[in-house]
Amino acid sequence: MTRVLLVEDDPEILDLTAYVLRRERFVVIEAAEGEQALRRWKTERPDIVVLDLGLPTIDGFEALRRIRDKDATPILVTAQKDSQVVLRAFNLGSDDFLAKPFEFRELAARIRAILRRTRGGAREEVEPRVQFDGLSLDPDTYEVNWHDAYVRLTPTEFRILYVLATNAGQVVSVNRLYTYVWGSEGGDANALRSHISHVRRKLEACGDTPGTITSVPALGYIFRNVTSPEAPKRVIAAPRQSPASPP
Fold first, then answer.
1. Confidence of residue 184 (pLDDT cuts 50, 70, 90)
2. Which of 59, 90, 119 is the last residue of a domain?
3. What is the Cα–Cα distance from 161 to 138, expressed in whole angstroms?
4. Phi, psi (rounded to 5 degrees) for 221
5. Is the pTM here over 0.90, yes or no?
6. Do 154 and 199 belong to one domain?
7. Domain range for residue 100?
8. Average pLDDT value for residue range 72-101
9. Which of 78, 94, 119 is the last residue of a domain?
10. Is residue 149 in some structural domain?
């Protein structure tokens, strides 16, 4: 069963949210402040973290940063809606944002949507591993390797790079990115720009970057490989079974 680390400092909201998520057949691990959240994340290894940003001791932003520095565990943050708060959360690597107060059904739906994206969902066609010109992308493990360097991306960042790289040399529309990365619920322009900025920075940190991501105004984004501008051929290393859908 899916293990959810629920981090919330308001005891009433924590109790009620945990109760509803358990009714939705999630295993809920509770934490009421930042230090406890980090300890429980380290020992319990949840499938996803639902993280309130307004926490005592260590706030949610710092907890988010520390988790993201070490791992790509999916993280859904919650807070009062504020554009600067939303941007900061996405800049630190959040996979999604849910404004308070929220409906519990929407919270459960967003958790499942994130897990479908990060686990690959029950697709009729398994997305293949891609290799070209020293760049390797594995959609099963969300690993990116550029020659001998490992590029650590969050699941959301990986999916953005995957759809752009597998269409190298072609413009990928914003709507297509929304659908591929966030599913039928759609995406957010600020979130997309923030995630693409992260991908660019992480690729550039490799030094000899595998390619560039360029914005095409009013259309979308294009990935240009430094050595081969054409779209790569997808390579399947071995037959794989599609992962089971989360509960």
1. low
2. 119
3. 11
4. -135, 155
5. no
6. yes
7. 3-119
8. 90
9. 119
10. yes
The pLDDT tens digits for 105-128 are 899 999 998 988 877 544 434 567
Residues 168 and 114 in one domain: no
Q: Give per-residue pLDDT as tens, 16-49.
A: 999 889 988 898 999 999 999 999 999 888 999 9
Buried b (16+ CB within 10 A) or exposed e, 113-142: bbbbbbbbbeeeeebbbbbbeebbbbbeeb
pLDDT tens profile 190-246:
888 889 998 988 888 877 777 789 999 888 999 987 654 444 444 433 334 444 433
The DSSP-derived string for the chain is --EEEEE-S-HHHHHHHHHHHHHTT-EEEEESSHHHHHHHHHHH--SEEEEES--SSS-HHHHHHHHHHH----EEEEEE--HHHHHHHHHTT-SEEEEES--HHHHHHHHHHHHHHHH--S-SSPPPPEEETTEEEETTTTEEEETTEEE---HHHHHHHHHHHTTTTSEEEHHHHHHHHHGGG---HHHHHHHHHHHHHHHHTTSS-SEEEEEETTTEEEEEESS--SPPPB--SS--PPPPPP-
What CATH number is associated with residue 71? 3.40.50.2300
First to last CA, the chain: 7
Q: How many domains does the chain have?
A: 2
